[in-house]
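I'll show a record.
***
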Amino acid sequence: MKAAKWRDLSDDELAQKAQDLSEEIFNLRFQLSMGVAKNPSRIGQARRDLARAYTIRHERGGAPLALTAPAPAATTTESAPPAPKRGKTRTTAGRTKAAKAPKRKAAKTATKKKTAKG
């Protein structure tokens, strides 16, 4: 679909198209990984159409299209206690690159066996 047709859509229609395209991309990626995609080039077309929907929404000055509802914020006045730490935690602060590298075993030096000749 051309960008001019995308601009003719209302905000609700644009949001619905974006939701449909997002689901289609998910399904196409799944089909592609399984090897049963009938038209693998459709994923590129769907991604471009989704980008057009986002661009037009941005041009209109609206908020970005949210495909999922945001999580509600906690409204309680009490603060939750911190979660207990599990096990020891390791930090790499202050360690050099050489210290981070695993230790290597000392190389064994090859010694020649002495022969009668020399």
Q: What stands out?
A: DSSP finds four helices and no strands in the chain. The chain has a mean pLDDT of 76. Residues 57 and 63 are 7 Å apart (CA to CA). The radius of gyration is 30 Å.
